[in-house]
């Protein structure tokens, strides 16, 4: 079998068109644009690229971006003052603090200052808790983007065995909660997992979020599995996923490429989350 390649770029473009209609309707209804504040501290080159793409994404979907660039030497107090001011600003719908922060800044303390209703990344403990409780929330963008891809392809989730390799707060853990919410049987594997290959081979849906280029090889994949590659690894100047794409695609039923798979959906989901936060905030005012 040769897998169907899930085109994240095309889905992302379609989703952005739909989103633009929503943000335009929002602007007409409330007389202001949906607004996202993006905070970048320091000079991490990868973060600079992500932030630039997030701002471009805002511009393409009629969301007003507010960009804040703070120097590497920013103190915890200075960073907290900015986040507090954005938290109180009624014109700001979403606040995103790009991670990782420079050494010396307390990530958790800073993220906790973002009000849950403006937490477009879904990182606040209240939103993480609500996700686990199956309540209304904002969930982390990368795993939400993966769910959008699975839904768009009408891939059955209920009762399927989903195996996630990676247990990060940004991808692995929320991915597990989202799949569990749709009644998958979920296994999370990580660096200490024994018999990783045997577990991966049982997966109907295999999500690779490890951070090692081509870690998932064809002998770890069941015939007909759905393989989702969250990895972005730079090897000799080229982007590689966590999955050995060329060989695994001959066994899988669906597979996401790198680049052009999960990556484009992550930023689009951030923009969707921003619009969702804006609508929920306006609805809360009128309740
Ligand atoms: N760094 C890597 N991924 C992310 C993300 O999804 N959100 C933020 N804020 N920082 C990140």
Could you walk me through the main structural features you see in this protein, from its secondary elements to its overall organization?
This protein has ten helices and eleven strands. The protein has two domains: 31-114, Rossmann fold, CATH 3.40.50.10860; 141-263, 3-Layer(aba) Sandwich (Rossmann fold), CATH 3.40.50.720. The N and C termini lie far apart (53 Å). Helices cover 43% and strands 16% of the residues. Helix 1 (8-30) runs parallel beside helix 10 (262-285) and helix 2 (45-60) crosses helix 10 (262-285). It is an alpha/beta fold and 287 residues long. A hairpin with a 2-residue loop joins strand 9 (233-235) and strand 10 (238-240). The structure holds guanine (GUN). Guanine binds next to strand 4 and helix 6.
CATH architecture heading of the largest domain: 3-Layer(aba) Sandwich
Q: Structural class per helix/strand content?
A: alpha/beta
Oligomeric organization of the protein chains: single chain
The average pLDDT score comes to: 97
Q: Remind me, CATH topology of the largest domain?
A: Rossmann fold
* Cα end-to-end separation: 53 Å
The CATH homologous superfamily name of the largest domain equals NAD(P)-binding Rossmann-like Domain
Rg calc: 19 Å
- Detail the poorly predicted runs: none
Briefly characterize the structure:
With 287 residues, this protein is α/β, with parallel strands linked by helices. Helices cover 43% and strands 16% of the residues.
List keywords for this structure.
287 residues, alpha/beta, Rossmann fold, 6-stranded parallel beta sheet, 10 helices, 16% strand, binds guanine
């Amino acid at each position: 079998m040769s897998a169907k390649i899930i085109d994240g770029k095309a889905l992302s473009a379609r989703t952005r068109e739909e989103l633009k209609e929503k943000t335009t309707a929002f602007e007409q209804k409330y007389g202001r644009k949906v607004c996202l504040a993006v905070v970048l501290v320091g000079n991490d080159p990868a973060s600079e690229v992500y932030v630039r793409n997030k701002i471009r994404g805002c511009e393409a979907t009629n969301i007003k971006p507010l960009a804040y660039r703070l120097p590497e030497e920013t103190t915890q107090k200075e960073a907290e003052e900015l986040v507090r001011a954005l938290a109180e600003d009624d014109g700001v719908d979403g606040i995103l603090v790009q991670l990782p922060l420079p050494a010396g800044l307390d990530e958790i303390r800073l993220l906790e200052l973002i009000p849950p209703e403006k937490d477009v990344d879904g990182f606040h403990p209240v939103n993480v808790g609500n996700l686990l409780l199956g309540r209304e929330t904002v969930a982390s963008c990368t795993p939400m983007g993966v769910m959008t891809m699975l839904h768009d392809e009408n891939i059955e989730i209920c009762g399927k065995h989903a195996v996630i390799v990676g247990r990060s707060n940004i991808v692995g853990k929320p991915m597990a909660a989202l799949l569990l919410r749709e009644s998958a049987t979920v296994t999370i594997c990580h660096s200490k997992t024994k018999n990783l290959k045997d577990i991966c081979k049982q997966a109907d849906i295999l999500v690779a979020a490890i951070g090692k280029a081509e870690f998932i090889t064809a002998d770890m994949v069941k015939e007909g599995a759905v393989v989702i590659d969250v990895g972005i690894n730079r090897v000799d100047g080229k982007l590689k996923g966590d999955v050995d794409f060329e060989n695994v695609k001959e066994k899988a039923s669906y597979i996401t490429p790198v680049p052009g798979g999960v990556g484009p959906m992550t930023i689009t989901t951030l923009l969707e989350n921003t619009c969702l936060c804006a609508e929920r905030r306006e609805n809360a005012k009128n309740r």
